[in-house]
Amino acid sequence: MLSYQHAYHAGNLADLHKHALLAWMLDYLCAKPKPLSYLETHAGRGLYDLGGPESEKTGEARAGITRALAQDWLPADHPLRQALDQIRALHGPQAYPGSPLIARYFLRPEDEAHLAELHPAEHDALARVGGFAHLHRQDGFQMANAICPPTPRRGLLLIDPSYEIKADYDAIPRHIAKLARKWNVGTIALWYPILTDGRQAPMVETLRAADPEALLSEVRFPPARPGHGMVGSGMFVINPPYGLSDEAARIEALYDTL
């Protein structure tokens, strides 16, 4: 459960899908002069080096964020592009923000952030860049259940597990149902991989049956290498901000060109 390290995959095509939607949601929510809460169940280290050995080993970022920037997938005024430009101005041209630092770009002094990360090394790295948030070295679902409904009640929860344990696919709909009952005004966003064996499909069907009004965005892409099982990325968003469906459709159309 503690073996996954996202540095090998940071900035890949799945990250691009997830982070483009996340940044759009945060930009929308923070545009209103009301404080909010931002929670993450699986935060990771927050900042990645696309020139590092892990990223170079897989080459996934070159097929993801590097290609997206070269092909103008993210215009200069896109929220993710704005966050990325600031992070690179501070940390260098090969820096890539994980979701915590994307959130940091948008959050204001009156907002509250809670980030959970269980992996010891990842948590230590997160602590070096996550001073804007309350950090929790514990199971992310335990953290979310303890805090929800948060104060302020307006806000966003990102659930982004590694899915190393196959039982996650069965457990996540139950976790989300419980959190949605406790925090019925919150935006709850789940990322999941689309796999060649289709193991994510029953989870998605269960989620859609429980909340047919939620936004579902899925994109497909070629495997990162021969035999690699992930061939797409999905986002399931309860209480999606107004206009998110249009941004999701724009992104999905870009992936259709791959």
Please provide a written account of the structure:
This protein is α/β, with parallel strands linked by helices. It has one domain: Vaccinia Virus protein VP39 (Rossmann fold), CATH 3.40.50.150. The chain is 43% helix and 18% strand. It has ten helices and nine strands. The strands form two sheets. It has a seven-stranded mixed sheet, with helices on both faces. The chain has a two-stranded antiparallel sheet with strand order 2-3. The longest helix has 18 residues, at 13-30. The model has no long low-confidence stretch (mean pLDDT 96).
Write a compact overview of the structure shown.
With 258 residues, the protein is of the alpha/beta class.
Q: How many helices in DSSP terms? A: 10
Mean pLDDT: 96
Q: What gross morphology would you assign?
A: globular
**How many extended strands?**
9
CATH homologous superfamily (4th level) name? Vaccinia Virus protein VP39
CATH fold type: Rossmann fold
N/C terminus separation: 32 Å
* Low-confidence residue ranges: none
SSE order, as H and E? HEEHHHEHEHEHEHEHEEH
Protein name: Ribosomal RNA large subunit methyltransferase J
Function: Specifically methylates the adenine in position 2030 of 23S rRNA.
Keywords: Methyltransferase, RNA-binding, rRNA processing, S-adenosyl-L-methionine, Transferase
GO molecular function: 23S rRNA (adenine(2030)-N(6))-methyltransferase activity; RNA binding
